[in-house]
Amino acid sequence: MAAARHLLAAVVLWAAFSSAASFTDPSDAIGMWELYRTLELPWQLSGWTSMGGDPCGGDGELGSWRGVFCKDSCVVAINISGLGVRGWLGPELLKLHSLKELNLAANKFEGNIPPSLPYLHSLKYLNLSFNNLSGIIGDVFVNMESLVTIYLQHNDFTGSVILLADLPLVALNIENNHFSGYVPGTFEFIPELRIDGNHFQPVPKPNEVLYSWSSLMMGRDTSSSNNNSIKPGRVSKRKSLAKTSKNLVPAKQFLAVDILAATRNFNEECLIGEGITGRVYRGDFPAGQLLAIKKISMIDLSLSEQDELMDILWNMSRLKHPNISSLVGYCVEFGHCALLYEYAENGSLDDLLFSSATRSRGLSWKARMKIALGVAYALE
Description:
The chain is an alpha/beta fold. It contains 10 helices and 19 strands. β1 (68-71) and β2 (74-79) form a beta hairpin.
């Protein structure tokens, strides 16, 4: 029975292609038919067909597909902007492997960003502006390394744009949406950038910094003169710290704005733990980097405790052991210290030993010895 169905499908496809010029790449042709059916055969798309048409093999005006452009047998561009087309975009775009330009602006499309977009590895230009699209954009664009132009203005998109930070963009317009959080620092290098009309949080100005990492280590007070949070006596204290802490911590220095963006301003949804010294959050950075971030309030610490913390930081950065999560980086700005560690996907030893899933299972003597030795080696 299954063989008969497969044979029938093959016959239908053969009939479809044989009835047309069969010039278009089969994958592209099927993708265009499916797209037309998904959009419920809108009258505005003259020349389009739901089966049997040949997008790249049209003969004159009668056979051409409106807004479809080909190179040889491949569909390389679709421009149906301003036609008032309605509908949702689904997986049918997956089949358009050679598509370089997609312009659906000024229509009435609804729903989320098409999940099939990441598979369009050749796409360079994307225009979804002036529609009714919504939802978060998430990591849809992360691996689209050919994409240089994105227009998403005048929709209802929400959430963070941090995962757009590493794209090689020359033009980005996300005006008049509902994006929030912090604007990635790399956006300043995009030649054509428009971000107004969203809910972004302002990036703190340099004169609002209580003390930067360099001021802590080298004894320079970089705060504004009218900031009463730092007492004059702290300057000399920081000079002695430069000697006792040997040198700058040999770990990557992260910017506060990037940490705030990665944790969505330390959103409760990103909270993964809490200890005596502070809360731990999950941080999603560009290029898929996932880190655990411990946030420590420096304002609540005395001067001696701050000095001690700096020395602990220096020692921690030198620890390299398979049983200890490595310190990847740090940030000391705006009255807070953030420590960034490797993210433990499986949780900590405490999680494994005392979670409800493992609490009822007894550990063998061999397993107990292995854990004890591992902890001992880590402490050593």
